[in-house]
Amino acid sequence: MNRLARWSLTASTLIVTAAYGSSPESTANLLAAKLEVASASAGQSAIAMTAWKNRDPDLFMTTVPKDFRFERPDGSVLTWQSLYDRQKHQMAALKHIDRFVVTIAVESVSADSAVVLSTQDWTRVVVSDGKDARFKTGVTHREIWKKSGGQWRMESLTEHDQTREELGDASVKDRDEFYE
Q: Rounded to two decimals, what is the model's pTM?
């Protein structure tokens, strides 16, 4: 089984809690909704990881609706086109992914809306200022999901807790890339 398939089946962290004092039926419905939205988020993350692995911004954008709202930590908002241009530029500069890990936690959920925290941790080699550089970066996306017609759809996300550290050696020793 390839690493992406294994990731989508086992490696994401799904935090599911029951509502104490609720009826068994409402608790079961809440747990089902949490699992559904977590699964939708994990599926979307798997597509994004495949896009990064293949350096394919078109694949990355297949899950992003045209009216999607992407808010940066500084409050600026990226349009669909500016997000596409950003992915295209970043993928072109990407030389190697050492490690790409996504952790998913459902923060809150109701029958038709949810907040999901998706944390990405990367170590990668990119071409920066004409030379190779290795960076360790991280970010948490606060995703707003809505359920309509029986399907969960991410409507917006806000980036939080960005980290970026340049590491020393930028040589690629292991050609394998690790996705989890």
A: 0.78
